[in-house]
Amino acid sequence: MIVQVGGIAMRFGVRIPPDLFEPWWTEFVPNAFTFTDSMRRGVPVLLDHAEGVEYGHSRSGSLQFSQDETGLRYAVGLDTEVEGVPALLAEIESGAITGVSLGWGSRGERWNFATTPALLTVTRATVDELSFAREPRAPGTSVEILRATHA
Asked: Is beta strand 8-11 parallel, antiparallel or unpaired with respect to 2-5?
């Protein structure tokens, strides 16, 4: 299960209890939450996924999931009016790294994502310390960087 929150991607292997991240999360329908960031701004996100369904908009664009026999993939639709997005699109067109998202993932979890044209391949790099990481973290989680690169 993956969700992008204003550039943050989070993956959890199990359904998230509504009270796990209180007071940061508010569940408004099953598996759909509002995330409240450090500025107390509510960002609506959906934590479930289904093939071809767009789950809402992050601050930088929209996130869409798809899944087939080769795995789970996601595509990001970027808003060119957001600062920094035109430069990111130029990197995508040049074949450079398409983007970086920060998030939490369960320790020891394998991240196997399929490669499909026009979608992003995600690889994992673990980061031990990030200054803005909140404490306490959920048991068994770590902070990770998810790098989205060309197929």
From this structure: antiparallel
